Each structure stands twice: as C-alpha cells, then as structure tokens.
Amino acid sequence: MTLEAFRITRFQFARDRVIGDSQVRADDVNVAALELISKSGAVGLGFIQTLFTALPAEDEIFRIFAGEIWPAIEGEAAIALVHRQSRPRGGNQRAFTLPFHEALQVALWDLAAKEAGLPLHRLLGGRRERVKAYASGLDFHLADDQFQSLFAYASSIGYRAFKIKVGHADFDRDLHRLKLLKAVIPAGSEIMVDANEAWSAKEALMKIERIQKEGHDLLWVEDPILRSDFDGLRLLRRSASRTQINTGEYLDLTGKRLLLEAEAADMINVHGQVGDVMKIGWLAAEKAVPVSLGNTFLEVGVHMACALPEVEWLEYSFQNFDHLVDEPIRIKDGWAYAPERPGHGLVLSETARRDWARPHLLAREDLGAAPKNTRLPT
Predict the structure, then answer these.
(1) Do residues 3 and 78 make contact, with C-beta atoms less than 8 angstroms apart?
(2) Closest CA to 331 of 162, 124, 185, 132
(3) What is the mean pLDDT of residues 310-333?
(4) 14-25 pLDDT, tens per residue?
(5) Predicted local confidence at residue 87, as pLDDT
(6) 307, 278 Cβ separation under 8 angstroms
(7) What's the Cα-to-Cα distance from 83 to each of 112, 257, 289, 344, rounded to whole Å?
C-alpha cells in the first residue's frame, strides 16, 4: 500500500505548568500533527514539535513539507521507506527547514505496522508488553511546594523511581531539592538527577561525591557535562563508581555510535526517532550497554522500549498532551503498557482537531487556559 496523501494540523496551547531545566524553560506547546495516508485509507500519525519557538502557520508547514519531503515519499510503501538506507554525502546531509525528522519516522512506522496488522512493538520484534516508567518532573522552575506536590502525587499512584533537575548556580539548592524529594517518596525508591550539561567534568565529580556524602544514592546522573566531552564522560564513568552516567540525549545517531565506541557512558539515552533508536539499541546490545527511553511525544517510545532488550526504563513527565489523541498510552502503578492495537496505537482526536487546532500563529497571551491534564490532580 503506497502513500497517497498527507494532512497537517497545527496546534498551539498553554502548558499546565512551566517545564524546563538549568538551561531552558517553556510554558506553551507548539506542535503539528502529521498524518500520512495510504491508498488503503490507513493513516500513520506523527507529531512535529518545537519547544522554544512557535511553528509557522499551518499552510506554511504544509508548503515546506510538500516541497522538502513529499516528492521523495509519494507513491512509496511505508514498509519500504522505514528500512531504506541512504548514502549520506555532501549536501544531502542537512536538516529539514522544520523538525520533520521524528514525526516522519513515527508516522511511517505507524503506517507500516498498521498495514502489517501488528502493534508497532511486535513489528519491531518485542516480546513484552510493558516497561517500568519513572516519574520525571521537568521541575527546575517549580516552586518547592509545587515540586513536592508533583512527586508526592506520583508516589501515591505507584511510581517508585523519580528524576529531578539539578544544575542550579547555587548547588545548595540542588541538595535542598533532593531532601524535599526524599521527604515525599517511599524509602528505597530509585532516584536520578539530570544536570542538562550544567557542569564541567571535575565539577561534576565533586558534586556527585557531595550528593552521595549527603546520603543520596543515585541510580544515574544524566547529561552531567557537555555531550562532546567524551574524555570527561569517560573520567566520570570510571570515577563515580556508585552511580551510572546516562548520556547521549543531545547526540544524533552518529554521535551516539561514537559515544559507545569511546566507552564514555554507562547508559545511552534515546528518544523518539524509531529507526534511529532501534539502530543504536542494536549497537548498545552488542556492547551490553543499557538504554533508557527519554521523553517521547505521547509516550510513543514505549514501543521501542518493549522491543529493545537493554531498556529497563521509560521517562514519563506528566505533560498535558493526552487530549490530542483518542486513547493515550496506558500507564499504571509505575508501568507503561504498549498498546496491542495495530500501529503505535495513537489516533488523532477529531475533538482535538475541532477544538484545539490553531491554523495561525497566536501570541502567547492569546492562548487561553491550558487543556486539562487528566493524569494530574486539579
């Protein structure tokens, strides 16, 4: 079944809380749904997302996709496109004008799995249907009471692993947040911290040792230093013996391969580009390096997590996106469950298309109230 048409629906809405880390913050959502339609009528769904700048108007997104992407995939079969290898040379190694890469991969794999009549995680070779989820607050900009309320609620609904943001200019604040976290979660819970490259290598080692001296055992430290500092990451991996160094989030597929070859990470962090995730997952399995699934839009990463043998954890951050689809990914008692529906199991909500589509760019002050987050208390 070949690709016959595509549809783009632009959304823009307020977040229900400010998210961010030691480097960035965001309080709105800018996303567009990409639907690839085959001759059979099956639809593959992916999402084009920008975090810090608004997407252009819907007709402009359509125009750019039609010019840059569509000529290369029109009339092709999704199952062939997801397996196609390109020859990266010269000018064909360039980013798209808009961040289509992840949306395109997700939509094509969704369509390929639907036309094979399989859930995506089964098409990818998965032999399990669930993976442990950890509660991630994206919490750097929350006040202390908001921070504690979020993690206390996560604990109350069954999470037993928690990741917080660190990297504040005042390190005592990082230590304070760890104490606040431990006050609202069960003893023996797994704790991770994410510095988002805020530290240098020696600084990171000293701060990790101080955290441990204060009585906080860490499952991992995520992105403690610059992504390109393989020597520094290797130093941390060898010296911080009581925790794992989890990194790679900011690297592309080639960068993650180089990271593995440099033996500079205890754990590789991957995201939502399905084909890329599977490729690095296979390489990680060969080296027995664990893989973690970071935030993926609407938790579509649960499929890759269930398919890759080295994945133990999926990140979940309680973002207010669920209204965009008919049936979100099920998460219960600290486990994320891969849908058994054909494809990745997410279908764009016609109610969302009717009520939340924003074809034209709106100013932040015109977005109105945030969509309700059904996974958090009011």
Answers:
(1) yes
(2) 132
(3) 97
(4) 999 999 999 999
(5) 81
(6) yes
(7) 10, 19, 24, 17
Question: What's the CA gap between 222 and 147, in Å, rounded?
Answer: 19
The 8-class DSSP code of residue 85 comes to: P
Pairing type for strands 25-38 and 3-20 reads: antiparallel
Q: What is the maximal distance between C-alpha atoms in the chain?
A: 62
Alpha-carbon span 231 to 115, nearest angstrom: 45
Calculate the average pLDDT of the chain: 96
Six-digit token string for 368: 């109105």
Location of structure tokens 């199991």: 345
Q: With the C-alpha atoms ordered 16, 189, 173, 266, is the resulting torsion angle positive or negative? A: negative
* Two tokens, residue 272: 């939502």
> Tell me: the pLDDT tens digits for 206-255?
999 999 999 999 999 999 999 999 999 999 999 998 999 999 999 999 99
Kindly give the pairing relationship between strand 161-165 and strand 311-316.
unpaired
Q: What are the backbone dihedrals phi and psi of residue 17, each rounded to the nearest 5 degrees, phi first?
A: -155, 160
CA–CA distance, 233 with 23 (Å, rounded to integer): 20
Phi, psi angle pair for 334, to nearest 5°:
80, 15
- pLDDT band at residue 1 using 50, 70 and 90 as cut-offs: confident
Output the pLDDT for position 95: 83
Per mean pLDDT, which range of 93-97, 130-134, 290-294 is the poorest?
93-97
Residues contacting residue 200 through CB under 8 Å, at least 6 positions apart:
225, 232
267 vs 310: CA distance, rounded Å: 9
Query: What are the distances in angstroms from CA 217 to CA 137, 176, 262?
Result: 19, 15, 26
Helix (H) / strand (E) containing 126: none
How far apart CA 299 and CA 301 sit, in angstroms, is 5
Determine the average pLDDT of the residues in 347-365: 97
C-alpha pair distances (Å), 11 with each of 31, 148, 262, 355 = 5, 31, 41, 10
∠ at Cα 50 (45, 51), nearest 5°?
125
> Which one-letter DSSP state was computed for residue 62?
H
* Among candidate residues 258, 240, 235, 238, the one with its CA nearest the CA of residue 248: 258
**What does the pLDDT read at residue 177?**
98
Q: State the pairing for strand pair 130-136/335-337.
A: antiparallel
Q: Give the separation between CA 37 and CA 2, rounded to whole angstroms.
A: 9
